[in-house]
Fold:
Amino acid sequence: MESKGRKGSSEINYSHARVQYKIAMLTFKVFHDSAPRYMESLVAVADLPIKLSTVGSHAYAVAAAQVWNVLPEVVVSSSSLQTYRRQLKSHLFQRSYSHLIS
Structure:
């Protein structure tokens, strides 16, 4: 019997992919000037140090760089939000559920 509050692996995959999707969408909007101006100062896509504190690794600036930097070129080079959204969803689905697709 599964205890209350404990998530199954498919729920965790979905939650993790959803968070990555939200971060990646906001980051795309920042880079294409369709996000609030204050967000611009929070995003700098660069290599990050390997060790971060737990709190630091959850900050938007860090999470945005981590998510964006691992996206394939076909996703980040999308010219429109609609294309980017479609490519991003496909990428995250394939990565999260590759064991079900094969």
